Amino acid sequence: MLTGCLAPIDKGGLEQLIANSKANPKVIKTLKCKTVAEGKFRHANYIRNLAPYIVDEPPGLLGDDTAPNPSEASLAALGSCLAVGLHANAVHPRLDRQQARTRTRGRSQHHRGLGHRRRQRKAGRFTDVRVKVDMVCEGVPQSEIDALVTHVKQWSPVANTFTRPVNLEVGA
Length: 172
Hints:
172 residues; globular; alpha+beta; 4 helices; 3-stranded antiparallel β-sheet; two-stranded antiparallel ribbon
């Protein structure tokens, strides 16, 4: 949990991002990740020039428990995307955030597809995902915070990936 005001973001830079987005609303950016198997179910994911982002499985799913599993990583991506949106959208009206935290929980049957070559009746997936936002802004009515959370959910790229169909191609 963070205490005191959250570290500020560059308001001028944020306004420039908004202006760029409005000027070129149809721009699509391609994001890339290269995933390399390291052994068992541990994988290193290479994104931009960052250190590898490791994904593993817990012992119950035959992994070494060295990192989040892919489903947990997707929950982290969702929680982080919503948190970024909350921070950016709270800067615009100048809400001082004393605390901002998301807690994400997903119910999953992700093990269904492991090793099954025959057709299953249902593929593994999240059946329910719930996000709880804890945001404290002194002197701001809860209704305003609720409206901000609703707005951020509507515009979050990761939340929209969870809630809307996406074209997915997987091939060798």
